[in-house]
C-alpha cells in the first residue's frame, strides 16, 4: 500500500472526505441534513457513527505513525468498578460496587505525538471542532487544555481490553485507525442507568447474566469517527486476539475552557504529572 507523505502540509480535504461530510460549509443543506440526522441518532441510540470520515490512504498513514509510537506508549492497567467509584467493602460480593473489571491498554499522550503526525490536523481543526459541537447541539465546545489528555493514541495488544464501565464524561469522540486481527469489539448496553439512579440491581443482573440485556456491537472500521454517550450506557472493548493491534485515537473536547487533569489523574493515566516524557 502506498502511503501519503507524513506531513502536516496536507489540506483538510486531503484527510477528510469533504464530499461525503461537507464540514467546511456549515450553511450547506447537505451539512445541515447530516447534523440533523446525526443528532437524531445520538438522541435515540446514544451513538452516531461516520464511516469513511477519513480517507483510506490517510487512515493507513495514521495507523503507520501510531505503530511507530507504540514502543513509547504508557502501559495503563487498572482494576475498577463499572462506575469508576471506589470499591465498597460494606456491600455484598455480587454488588456492582464490589466487583472489579479489568482494563489494560497502551497510550500515547498528546505531548508525545509529533507535530507532523496527521492525527493532529484532525484534532486541531476548527472545522472538526464545530462539526462535533453542532452534532452535540452545544453552544460552545473547546479542545481539552491538558497537554497530556487532549488527544490520545491508543494501542491494544493481545489480551488487552477495556472492562465494562460507564464514562465519567457526557460524550466521547473516537477515530478507528486499525482493527485487531480478532476481538477488540466495542460492545455496549444502551441506557442501563440514568441521571437520577445508578440502577445497581439492573447492572448486577447484567453482570451476573449478560443475556438479560441486548448487547450491541459497533464495528471497528478504520476511518470511522464515532460520537458516543457513555455516561449512561455500559460499554467495553473485548480482549484483543492475534498479532494485529487495535488502534484508535481519542479526541477530548469539553464545554468549558481551560480544563486540565489533576496531578493524580495524569499520574494514573500517563505515568507522569508533567509533559516531560517518560524515560
Automatic annotation (TrEMBL):
SUPFAM superfamilies: Clavaminate synthase-like. It holds the Pfam family HalD. GO terms for molecular function: metal ion binding; oxidoreductase activity. It comes from the Bacteria. InterPro entries: BesD/HalB-like (IPR056470), Oxoglu/Fe-dep_dioxygenase_dom (IPR005123). The keyword Iron applies. Residues 143-254 form the Fe2OG dioxygenase domain. Keywords: Iron, Metal-binding, Oxidoreductase. Belongs to the iron/ascorbate-dependent oxidoreductase family. This is Fe2OG dioxygenase domain-containing protein. The lineage of its organism: Bacteria, Pseudomonadati, Pseudomonadota, Gammaproteobacteria, Pseudomonadales.
